[in-house]
Amino acid sequence: MPPVGTTDEIALVPCVILSTPTLADNDTETMIRGELPGVYWTPATKSDGSSVASEDTIDVGGVRHYIFQNAHRTERYSYFALRAS
Length: 85
Prior knowledge:
Layout: E1 13-19, E2 31-42, E3 57-60, E4 63-69, E5 79-83
Antiparallel strand pairs: 1-2, 2-5, 3-4, 4-5
């Protein structure tokens, strides 16, 4: 996870599209196919230890992002952020 500096920052890691091998492919490599623009994984915990919840907003570098949870999951690793356009 990338380090975060100030007390109100949150880590945002770009989401990527992966392809995994199948038995029919005779391929043993997982390949990164691309990045989803404006979609980020987040631990939903700020660097000061406070947490964010689904549908909260955060500003990163002057750009607003909306936080969402992964379906019914609410573990700290089950959140993602969408950049507002």
